[in-house]
Amino acid sequence: MYNEEDFLQLSGIQHFAFCRRQWALAYIELQWQENVRTVEGKLLHENAHDASIKEKRGDLIVVRAMPVHSREIGISGECDVVEFHRSENGIPISGREGKYTVIPVEYKRGKPKTSDIDALQVAAQALCLEEMLCCDIPYGYIYYEEIRHREKIEFTEVLRRKVKDMFAEMHKYYGQRYTPKVKWSKSCNACSLKDICLPVLNKDVSVKKYIDSRMKEEPH
After folding, report:
1. pTM (2 decimals)?
2. What is the mean pLDDT of residues 22-34?
């Protein structure tokens, strides 16, 4: 069990899965830069996290910006949306009649990815909710703004184990204040930390060659 002061940010798992160095630069070295993708994502999440919006439609209760944590994994954060569906197979909710099943919903600006990078984040939210509410959550959803559609995410044992193992690795790096070396890929071009990370300098390219190439790119 982790103490509260040792909690990591839940949302960091997506950055860590994308690039361990990016996560370390942002969460250990506290370096960050915005780009179009991060600004659009922030605007989308601000709308999803508007806690002033309360929804109750029949047997459905929608809670926005719900704070969650897990002492077992050592994380805390917020869920974009948590849906409580009235069901005899659910759990009691304080101040409400009946029982409810719990479904986390994460909002993303783009479209579904071929990797499990988004699924890891919503699965981490589910693990927190299970610990806090003493319930089982078999699945959740990711809403993709680009396609305006929900994708159902099954919380398999493989996905759950990957989330726990990844956060254990993050705790290790954070405790050591360790920033991994870059592993260059085409994804580096879209990273908001590209100008801080300078991945091309870690591709066996000399500083002179890098500066020369950038000078050629400058307009005369």
Report:
1. 0.80
2. 82
